[in-house]
Amino acid sequence: MRVAVVGAGSTYTPELVSGLTGVDVQRLALHDVDAGRLEVVGGLAARMLARAGFGGELELATDLDRALDGADVVLVQIRVGGQTARLSDETAPLACGCIGQETTGAGGFAKALRTVPVVLDIARRARELAAPDAWIVDFTNPVGIVTRALLDDGHRAIGLCNVAIGFERAIARWMGVEPERLVVDQVGLNHLTWVRAVWLDERDVLADLMATHGDELADMAGGLPRSLLDELGVVPSYYLRYFYAHDEVLAEQLAGATPRAQTVAEIERELLEMYADPTLSSKPALLERRGGAFYSEAATRLVASLASGDGAVHVVDVRNGPAIAGLAGDDVVELPARVDREGAHPLPQPALSPELLGLVQHVAAYERLAVAAAVGGERSAARRALLAHPLVGQWGKVEPLLDGLLSGVHA
């Protein structure tokens, strides 16, 4: 198998490489437009692979075409505009009284406008240069919107997030079982999901977990009140805090809470200094603070299933089809699916309860409009997308927000 990683100058890459050492990869091409970062991160990757006895070929490439040539899997993990753009996403919406966040709301929309055209350009080159049946695995946020754009453009694409595997690993630790025995039945849209069941050897143990580890689950849900989890009977992803505790989050941000972008930028600076150390040949512990925990396991397990066709269950972002009643078949949803060489096949899902379905439908409508705005570039589509998002939703805020967001997109 030949794997290309686009955006390999990311400090995530050693996390990914640590997982790929357990997969049969003949060629690993690491690509980034930043030659300096690629040299540093790629150097550590080479030492990690050598330490693991990797027998394949490693190539560092600033030329995208060279990296994509013949690839069976293209993993996209780019951040258009870097941490500077992320800081804008997290702060610019505050001027209009809206929450600032890099993957949802107004900030997430700005990121989608920047990111979708770039990812589509990469995918179109992959269509010409990669293997005929190559898969694009997208870890680039906002994953649901980017994956929808890729599928709309006709690519063989699957989106991937690490939220579900984070729950899986914590629950496995609490229960003292191997993670492979668990299926976390997480359903919704990317960054708008709820865990409705946890299957251990085909038995749902979520109620038991709520009784014994409910407070820990509430902490994993972004510190939402335990009473909310008990009321809903599900475990929200931590991104639901922006909806369920909207006023509290906005007040924190307006009061001057340190944006996550600033924290991450400092962590990245320290990590790159560490990566440049020629004696370092393993991922440092600091990487755990970067975010993206268990990303390597999620990505490499998915890649392995696409290559082997083993039919293992993964939580992925794919077309809905008939899986979630109340959503369109072409909406991109996040849910457990059996994965083989032909792709991901969603597991049947019970109907979402009204309090979940209403929010999902609301955000799914926004995502449809966001893709149209990012692909078509029409200001009218952008206005309607912002108006549709429940974290914006007021006409008087739309135009001022759009002016600020677009200045960041085109900077």
Provide structural commentary:
Helices cover 49% and strands 17% of the residues. The chain has 16 helices and 13 strands. The chain is globular. A 6-stranded parallel beta sheet has the order 3-2-1-4-5-6, with helices on both faces. Strands 7, 8, 9 and 10 form a 4-stranded antiparallel beta sheet that branches. Strand 1, helix 1 (13-20) and strand 2 (27-31) form a beta-alpha-beta unit. By secondary structure, it is an alpha/beta fold. The chain has a domain at 2-159: NAD(P)-binding Rossmann-like Domain (Rossmann fold, 3-Layer(aba) Sandwich), CATH 3.40.50.720. The model has no long low-confidence stretch (mean pLDDT 95).
CATH superfamily of the domain at 2-159: NAD(P)-binding Rossmann-like Domain
- Supply the number of helical segments: 16
Please tell me the CATH architecture of the domain at 2-159 by its name.
3-Layer(aba) Sandwich
Sequence of strands across the biggest β-sheet: 3-2-1-4-5-6
Beta strand %: 15-25%
Care to count the β-strands?
Answer: 13
Low-confidence region ranges: none
* Helix vs. strand class: alpha/beta
Query: Could you give the distance between the termini?
Result: 39 Å
